[in-house]
Amino acid sequence: MSDHGHDGSQHGSGRPDTPSPRSEIGGPAGGTPEDYRRSTAALRRRVLHLSNELRQATRRADEATDLNRERICSLKSHELMCTNQGREIGRYRAEVNRLREERDTLQAFLESDRVMGMDPPSAAPEISALETQIADLNRDLDRRLGEIRHLQAHIDDLTQDRGNLESTIHHLASEMSQAGGEILDLQQANRDLDRSREDAESTLSATEESLRRTRSELDRVEAELLLSRSDRTDRGSSGPDLQPQPADPQPTGPTQADLDQVVRDRDTLRDQTRARDAEILSAQQTLRSTSPSPSRPQKKRSVPVEVDDGSMEEEDASEFDLGGGSTGGRSPSADQTSFPPSKDVDSSQPSGEVIEVRSGSGAEEEEEEENAEVADDLYEAQTLMGISQFRSEARRRDHASPQCRSVGGSGGSPGGSDGSNSDAGSGDQGNGSGPTGGSGLANPPPGRQPLRITFEKSRSFGH
């Protein structure tokens, strides 16, 4: 039993100490999301390993406790047995002493009789029986003393085993406390990582909401521009005013300050949109690195395409005539403006048709971003042109002379009143005799079709 106890104590205390993971709990300071993800996986593996060790240590401690309890019970039983044997030995000793006293009394009586000259009586049978009984009691006493010495040695072994088991229990308890502290630290680190991920998700949600509001504002401004242009066109295409009106000042084109303001607004909105896109991309990369990323569905992007065979130089010459050139002091309407197709857009598509650009995850991501940038640039350019042409037409209509309007209305053909239908492709109906049609819109140069600008944005934003 003592050897077993020593083996158990050596097994409990001789286990190699595992390195403390406290240096791994904090994770890499200022690391990337991938480092945080690897640190989280390592911490989880460490928690599982420590949990298994804790269960094994608990099981060993329970076994040692059971063995110690059994040995303590055996020790108590042996101690009780020793006590009983001691009491019996004391009784035997008292009996031996009594018998010895009787023997001494008889011997003294015999000696006194011998001194007095009397013949010694024959040995009484009682004395022989007493001597025999005394010899038996002495042998029994020696045997019991041997048993007591053996029990005392066994009690000493049990006491030593109990000390070894107590030291093993203390060692296992300290290991359990250390493992519990490490598990608590790892759980706290996991909670910190979860909070960091939740903060990243909230930041991403706020960024997406801000981007959505910005794009909603852009769409609202675009709708207001389209409605205002439609109202201006309707008022300009109404019946000519035949009443004499005082002469208005000479028509003036859009000033450079107006164009600069439009460009600044456009650049500001573009910078805000790109900043929001960058923030959303960064937050999404953080989320994908800290949590299992599901398979991303394919996204559809549609780019409005208009057929145009002109160049940007010709449009600058015919549409941004700030000094009142060959169009009779009027710049063409925003409905007659278009752009050459981008290099990423198929120019063989019919006018107004939407081309869908599909992009998936992996190797097509770069091409998808390039197509998105091309579509954004095309849309921004169309918006800028629409705003500029709208302001130019508004100023020219506000400052146009009523006499000029009446002359233009009478000199044109019946199609002059249809000049506002340039969106429907009826630009060749306004064949007036003057430099402008009935509505004041300039005719396209010979050999060119009227240009159209379409404010469409069917590309879905967001990820």
UniProtKB/TrEMBL annotation:
Residues 236-245, 284-293 have a biased composition (Low complexity). Residues 40-102 form a coiled coil. Residues 306-319, 363-379 have a biased composition (Acidic residues). This is Uncharacterized protein. It comes from the Eukaryota. Residues 1-36, 191-463 are annotated as: Disordered. It comes from Phytophthora palmivora. Keywords: Coiled coil. Residues 408-418, 427-440 have a biased composition (Gly residues). Residues 329-340 have a biased composition (Polar residues). Transmembrane segments: none annotated. Signal peptide: none annotated. Residues 191-200, 209-235, 261-279, 454-463 have a biased composition (Basic and acidic residues).
